[in-house]
Amino acid sequence: MNCPQEFRLAVYADGELPATESGEVAAHLDACHACKETVRLYQLESAWIAASLRELDAEVLTSQETIYPARGRVWPLAAFVGGLAAVLAVVLAPLRGIEMPAGFEWLDPSSLQTQIALLVSGFFYVLEDGAPTMASIVSSVSLGILNLSVLVGLVCLLYRRVKIPTAGLMAALMLVVLAAPSQAIDIRSAQNGALTVGPDEVVDDTLVVFARSIDIEGTVTGGVIAFGFDVNVRGNVGGNVIAGARRVNLDGVVGGDVFAFAQTVTTSGEISGNLWAFNESTIEEDGSNVGGNATVFGADGSIDGRVGRDLTMYGAVLNVGGLVERRVNFTGNQLIIRAPAFVGGNVSATVTQEDNVQIDPAARIGGTQSIELREVPEFSRYSQFARIGFYVRQMLRIITGFVLGLLLFWVLPGLGRVNLGDARTLAVSGGVGFVALVAMPVAALVLAVTLIGLPLSIMTISVWVMGLYIAKIMVAQFIGAAVIGRKPNGVTTALGLLFGLVVVILAVNIPFVGGLINFLLLLVGMGALGVGLYGLISGIGAQQDSPQPAG
Amino acid sequence: MYAATALQMNSAPDFSGIYDEHYRRVFNLCRYLLRSEEAAEDAAHDVFVKVRSRLDTYDPAHPFRNWLLKIASNHCLDQLRRRGRECRLSESDSLQPQAGGPGPLSQLLTEERSERVRRALDGLPEKYRLPLVLTYYNDFSYEEVGDVLGVGRNTVATLIYRAKQRLRTELLKREGPAS
User: Do A11 and B157 touch (CB under 8 A)?
Assistant: First the structure.
């Protein structure tokens, strides 16, 4: 008997032989048992391949959830975060009650004073080398920004979400931004040395200086931007002063505002505008005068001179012995107003204990005094729920998160795919998040110590801070996608994100455990971000394996 | 099917019905063809966008699912070509099928092995993977597969025959002789 080729039998088994041939084969099969068996096996095989492939259709509920998480899958996340938060809350509760003895407060990591002091000291420890470093930072950072924008542009192009005109526009904008400040600027730097603008010298525009020690004794008609170790302004500055240094002394006359970022800022001269101080210590000496508002962020502030308008401080300790023409607003640990202080307007303080506000009866206060008690965070947040401002703030949080999230997932849609719906990914995300949360600042610090790595360190920190913010948006979009689903239209994505953000904001405001939930969501979100970015980068890598026509 | 015809009259609300009904199918197809969940997600998304814009070209005389899967298959093929890994499915490929190799798989297959089949399939070169998926997952005829791949019916038959041989070899390699 002349059996047909196996190939023909296979095609016959799929029902794909032309009618005439098919008839012949069928006739042969009636007579040949072996061929009949072959055909049967081929049919079974085809059926098996089809079944294997389609098995996922039934399973796809899970597989689809990986992509578009479905309703039930939020529970692992909720259980993980909620459960862990509750456990931690119980475990940590006894530790909360312990109060540090007064002398050891600086050891308490939860004390604001310690944190600010540590931050500022750490920063200046790193920058000990002062001027040349600062000069290199400024130039490298601008270069870094340019590189970053080119990189982002490339990523966007690769992703083909942002079309070339937009990228071109971005680049053009970037150039404009970078080119703008180059006019009428006198840039000086002294490597490791002192830079002095002598008493008789007149600088007729804005002066930008980088040096270890900077003394301005003459006159600058424009503003002064000074970075160094010591900055002393004894002369006249027509415009604003922006100073970053370990010690900033302002003895002269400043026509505009002062922005000071330093460990210690001492003013003993005249500032016509406002004073913005971001320092560990801010000292306004007797005889000095700030014409406008004085706004101080830092560990301690001491005001013995005059403030023409309001004095506002966010920090640990504020000590007022001078003259404040209008109000004094304080949020922090301790407010001391001692004679012969004079406050023209109201004094309002937000502190943790009433005893922490000490107002000398001999001090004169024109307005009212009000003390608002700030509850120790996380454990009793009830009071804040009564304030409208709280709700406004939360609304703002949601809105900014929403806008940023839409932008983020529009530019990098791959980020939206990270799934937090099963225990394994949750654990991975949590782990990655923890590493990112801890390792990045450490890496940044190590980089910073090597000085050459300083720009990179600053970039790492910026990415880290951005990550902190985006982390919760990641979680929100996952929750939204899980509950509302995601279909190929922007409305569902937006709705999901909005919904998720509302859930996240509600969760982090739950009394007792809100703070912990916040932290855990941060971990998970940070991890999800890391995993998402990794997927994105490796995805782009895969696409780059082979040349790809644009479009 | 009903959803599709209804949709031609009033597209907005029904599109979501089509999406819900066919999403899994389209996604899985894209997944098999592109071998990456992420790429498949993007592709499935793009396919539905395409489908929405092309609904007026759908001919209700043919099954809607086939029309949809054809769009999806073509889209994935475009993607693969764009990646530069063009499957060279020219007619010159229609050599005579080689005989030999292990016989049909049927006896090897037990239920827990379907996962291995899918993995082995993922490992096949594109020119074998595509016709197998299009034929057995999409339930396309050789003719339809040929349309999508741009080759003749006979080439499809040869490719499928060889693809199955490769699949068997792969499976045997992976798990040793059938027990």
Answer: yes
Distance CA A207, CA A203 (A): 7
Please state the ipTM of this predicted complex: 0.77
Q: In the predicted model, is pLDDT for residue B111 greater than 80?
A: no
Best CA proximity match to A28, nearest among A10, A68, A8, A1? A1
Minimal-distance CA residue of chain A relative to B51? A488
Q: What pLDDT, on a 0 to 100 scale, did the predictor assign at position A435?
A: 82
Q: Which residue of B has its CA nearest to A5?
A: B99
* DSSP 8-state class, residue B135: I
- CA B127, distance to chain mean position in Å, is 11
**3-state secondary structure (DSSP) of residue A329:** strand
- What is the structure's pLDDT at B36? 80
Across the interface, whether the CB atoms of A53 and B118 are under 8 A apart is answered yes
Phi and psi based region of residue B176 (left: phi greater than 0; alpha: psi -120 to 50; beta: remaining): left
Concatenated DSSP letters for A518-532? Answer: HHHHHHHHHHHHHHH
User: Which is more confidently placed, B178 or A253?
Assistant: A253
Q: Note whether A7 contacts B121, CB cutoff 8 Å.
A: no
Q: How much is the pLDDT for A171?
A: 58
Q: How far is residue B25's CA from residue B20's CA, in Å, rounded to a whole number? A: 10
Which whole-number Å values give the CA distances from B84 to A87, B79, B80, B126, in the listed order? 53, 9, 7, 12
| Three-state DSSP class for residue B81 | helix
Which structure tokens are listed for A220? 């600058």
134-163 in chain B: CB under 8 A from chain A: 135-137, 139, 141-142, 153, 157-158, 160-161
What is the amino acid identity at position A495?
L
Per-residue pLDDT, A115: 58
Taking 50 as the pLDDT cut, the residues of chain A under it are 59-72, 106, 129-132, 161-163, 176-184, 378-381, 540-551
Task: Say whether residue A340 is in contact with chain B using an 8 A CB cutoff.
Answer: no
Of A212, A207, A205, nearest to A197 by C-alpha is: A207
Q: How many CB atoms lie within 10 A of CB A28?
A: 19
Predicted pLDDT of residue B12: 41
Residue A286 φ/ψ region, left for φ over 0, alpha for ψ in the -120 to 50 degree band, beta for the rest: beta
Q: Which residue has the tokens 């082995």?
A: B120
